[in-house]
Design the sequence.
């Protein structure tokens, strides 16, 4: 019988799960990555930093928020508190090399089909017969582009490439990040989003912007940001006659703007590439059982920021990493694969094994 | 029999232990504070911030590094990542009021003496017969002043009060903080300390400066800092003739400096006020058993940054708060005081119950 476990994606979730498998003594697995390890992070705008601070608390049971295995601290490795995407990409490459993870880079999975109790994973290079598929495709490569025009946050290579005053559409952490950087560069920024004021107090911390972002928005560099809360954009069109973009709001008002608006409109789940492997929510999220396994077919697991368990949202690294050991333990038991129980215990001791979700906050401002 | 538990000190440790007792349903206790709640933090230089970042991860088992009870986040309450001392003092006052803690402010404990199985706690107001003494005096009010001259870090109200280029003696986090602020204000700073280069890589994270401080030292504002590692200061004298301070190093060299040097030479344990209640290490630290209880007399407990367990150093809030529930459980059992087991469980679930010290890092760069 086939023993191969395949992980689709060499980002934070794929590398994290690969390290867990290695620590558990499981050797028969393969990570398939369409670009390179950490590609999404390497593609971040170069000035953009993590909103979750890294700290070296792992010696006392408080694991670095951005670590993907126990006793690791990217903040310590990189000597900084808020890593850039490039630094984090380097961290992922470094730990993948250290653990000698079997990663096939520049290899794209084009199709996955069920064949009896197994799956045929077809890439642009080869085909693999596997018994387990772990979907770890992230979201950053799958930007939501709801309008005819607009430059998506994910397309930005450097904030210094932007010139002129600009409209930002969206109100989450990425919109705040974009607004901060453009304002820091001296541009006037108008942010349109349907929510309430960014700095308004919310009784639920998970619905608020991060402390890091709140600090940035209160700083001098953010003086050029003009926020327009309670404003839903419904369309963005280009008028050749006006040589300008016309942005229509839900209330019918129309705004003209010379520069192409910046879209901070979020991301699709990367699992959507493999639509037939999951059932889907109305919001376009894959549905999984209590072991993060597809409700549609067995031995297909979801990991990474698209993961939901009922109302609980695992959109940050420090959240979804806590499910690695839970679903991996399940899949190893399902397939009768033996593993090192002591290594699993290390994950439990390090706040990286979250099976009781009753304690968790429900919402999340991603 | 007397049931009163007395906590000496209304700082982070005293307030944290008071909240724990309240949550456990224990009512017979009293916190005695010589100034006001959070006084040490309120006395920090007003620009100085916590080096430990606050983050709202408590919904997913990653408690804010600076919280003193489960589900609390000073970073969320104050809307910032690195709190100032004044903000933290406000947080402590706020939570003490919320939990209606019995705190006697502006009351100084002048003497504690054993009388049979009890202790007489004498204040400048009154005397209390108690069965348990919890020493939570912190360290900030007890600066080490090893030289004839020098302004101690603890004496600084605002970094803007300092004019002129200045020598700093000491190499820990407080020296780096002082150097950063003076350099930011445009003054040339010379830092003399016996250790190695601040930014040198150390394989042990606990011996390195925090990520926050590393970022500050690498920034533009730190360009006026000149570090002199491997330099031990042995004396600071004042020469009227030269109208200058003369600083002698261990290697015999003498440095003249116009401005009074700034001493970042650390702190004594506040427990030293009650010398007869503890045995002491050669380094001037109180010795406790595995339940943080004095090895000399029963029912006297130590909490806060002076706490050591063999080689393990509990110098940060996120470290020593993990011992609150361990020693409080012990003292309640010792005295047969009943308590809410469920509340204790909440502390265990929140990384606030550290009884197995084998997992902990030993050293610490405080």
Sequence:
């Amino acid at each position: 019988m086939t023993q191969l476990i395949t992980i689709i994606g060499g980002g934070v979730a794929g590398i994290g799960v690969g390290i867990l498998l290695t620590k558990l003594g499981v050797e028969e697995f393969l990570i398939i990555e369409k670009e390179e390890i950490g590609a999404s992070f390497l593609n971040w705008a170069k000035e953009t930093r993590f909103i979750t601070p890294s700290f070296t608390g792992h010696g006392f049971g408080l694991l670095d928020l951005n670590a993907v295995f126990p006793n690791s601290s990217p903040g310590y490795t990189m000597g900084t508190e808020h890593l850039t995407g490039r630094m984090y990409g380097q961290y992922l490459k470094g730990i993948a090399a250290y653990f000698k993870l079997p990663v096939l880079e520049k290899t794209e999975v084009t199709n996955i089909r069920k064949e009896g109790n197994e799956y045929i994973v077809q890439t642009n290079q080869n085909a693999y017969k596997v018994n387990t598929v772990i979907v770890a495709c992230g979201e950053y490569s799958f930007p939501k582009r709801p309008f005819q025009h607009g430059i998506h946050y994910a397309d930005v290579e450097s904030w210094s490439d932007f010139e002129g005053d600009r409209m930002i559409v969206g109100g989450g952490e990425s919109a705040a990040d974009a607004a901060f950087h453009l304002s820091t560069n001296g541009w006037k920024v108008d942010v349109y989003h349907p929510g309430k004021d960014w700095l308004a107090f919310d009784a639920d911390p998970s619905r608020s912007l991060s402390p890091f972002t709140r600090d940035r928005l209160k700083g001098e560099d953010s003086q050029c940001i003009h926020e327009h809360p309670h404003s839903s954009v419904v369309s963005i069109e280009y008028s050749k006659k006006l040589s300008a973009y016309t942005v229509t709001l839900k209330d019918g008002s129309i705004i003209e703007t010379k520069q192409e608006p910046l879209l901070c409109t979020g991301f699709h789940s990367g699992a959507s590439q493999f639509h037939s492997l999951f059932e889907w929510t109305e919001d376009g999220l894959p549905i999984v059982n209590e072991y993060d396994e597809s409700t549609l077919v067995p031995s297909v697991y979801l990991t990474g920021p698209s993961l939901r368990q009922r109302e609980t949202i695992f959109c940050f690294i420090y959240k979804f990493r806590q499910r690695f050991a839970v679903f991996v333990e399940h899949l190893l038991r399902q397939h009768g694969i033996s593993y090192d129980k002591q290594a699993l215990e290390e994950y439990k001791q390090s706040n990286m094994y979250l099976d009781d979700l009753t304690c968790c906050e429900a919402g999340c401002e991603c």
User: Anything to note?
Assistant: Residues 277 and 297 of chain A are 6 Å apart (CA to CA). Residues 5-141+267-359 of chain A form a domain with the FAD/NAD(P)-binding domain fold (CATH 3.50.50.60).
